[in-house]
Amino acid sequence: MNRTTGRPEFLTTLPQNALLVSNIHEQNIYHPQENKIGEVKDLMLDRNGKITAAILSVGGFLGVGEKDVAVAFDEIKATERNDKWWLTMNATKDELKNATGFRFDKNRGLWTVGSAK
């Protein structure tokens, strides 16, 4: 919104080197040694539109025994690899499994502390 006129502001160009949410959401995340440690399940934005946290689905097998944990978004590093975004985080599977679990409250439309599944 244009602060002066109160009207919508339309872009004529797009930001260069921007990372798209679609390149992050529901993508695998790996330990730097290339072991898969989870999947990005959701992203949390502050009121200014900055991504502050990511909800990762960790552990389990074929959807059984999974746990959802929250990490600061700046812990996730994104690089391009073979024309695809590659997400890494300096954490182990065990560290993520031992992190506080969260669950999505569908009635309230928000993540809350508690058993993920």
Describe this entry's structure for a reader.
- The chain has a single domain (21-105), classed as Roll (SH3 type barrels), CATH 2.30.30.240.
- The mean pLDDT is 89.
- The chain has an eight-stranded mixed β-sheet.
- It is mainly beta.
- The chain has one helix at 93-97; strands spanning 28-30, 36-45, 51-58, 67-72, 76-81, 84-89, 101-105, 110-113.
- A hairpin with a 5-residue loop joins strand 2 and strand 3.
Task: Give the tags.
117 residues, 4% helix, eight-stranded mixed sheet, mainly beta, SH3 type barrels
TL;DR?
This protein is mainly β and 117 residues long. The protein has one domain (21-105): PRC-barrel domain (SH3 type barrels, Roll). 4% of the residues lie in helices and 41% in strands.
How many strand segments? 8
Total domains: 1
Helix content: under 10%
Whole-Å distance between the termini?
40 Å
Instruction: Briefly note the structural class of the backbone.
Output: mainly beta
Number of helical stretches of at least 4 residues: 1
User: What Rg do the Cα atoms give?
Assistant: 17 Å
What is the CATH topology classification name?
SH3 type barrels
Which outline best applies? globular
Q: Largest sheet, order of strands side by side?
A: 5-6-1-2-3-4-7-8
Looking at the overall shape, the CATH architecture is Roll
What is the class in the CATH system? Answer: Mainly Beta
The residue ranges in which pLDDT falls below 50 over 5 or more consecutive positions are: none
Q: CATH superfamily name?
A: PRC-barrel domain
Measured by DSSP, the beta-strand proportion falls in: 35-45%
- For this entry, what is the oligomeric state of its chains? single chain
